Amino acid sequence: MKKVKYWVLAAVVFIGGWICGAVCSSHQFKSISLAPFYSSSLNEVATDAIALHKGESMKVLKRKTAALPSLARTYYEAFSSSMPKGKARYSCLWQVERFYEISGEEIPKGLMEVFDSIPERPESSCEKQQQKAETSKKRKL
To answer: Region Disordered: start and end of each range (predicted)?
Structure first.
C-alpha cells in the first residue's frame, strides 16, 4: 500500500511540475517572442505617424517600398510553410503582390519567384463590387 501511495504522489508531483512548466513556458514565450514584435510594430506606426504629420508622405512611401521585398521574402522562407494551409498562409504575400500591381513598380527578381510559387490571389470584396458596378453600367448603356 505504501508503494501505491508513493507512485500516486510521484505522479501528482510530475503532472504538477509539467503543468507549471507549461504555464511558465507560455509566459516566457509571450515576453520573449511577442513583446518585441508588438514593440517594433508600434515603433513603426509611430514613426510613420510622425513623418505623415510632418507632411513627409513620400519619405514614408519610399521607406515602406524599400522594405517590402526583404520582408516578404523572409516571411515566405521562414514562416509560410509552417502556417496552416489556406488564406492566412498567403494573405500578406498577396497584399504585397497587390501593391506591385497597383503601384506599377517592377517586381524584384527574388519576389517574382515567391509570387510564382503561391496560389493565385482571390479577388477582394472591393474588386468584386467594382466589377459588379462596371457590369451594371455596361448593361445600362
So the answer is: 119-141
Distance CA 49, CA 44 (A): 9
pLDDT digits (tens, 9 = 90+) for 124-133: 777 778 888 8
Specify the length of the chain in residues. 141
Q: Which residue has the cell 482571390?
A: 122
- Among 89, 94, 95, 83, residue whose Cα is nearest residue 120: 94
To which residue does cell 448593361 refer? Answer: 139
CA distance 105 to 25: 44
Q: Which three cell numbers stand for residue 12?
A: 501528482
**Where are the domains positioned within the chain?**
1-55, 57-141
Determine what percent of the chain falls in helix, strand and coil, rounding each to the nearest 5.
85, 0, 15
Rounded CA separation 55/38 (Å): 26
- Distance in angstroms (rounded) separating the CA atoms of residues 115 and 97: 7
For residue 117, pLDDT beyond 90: no
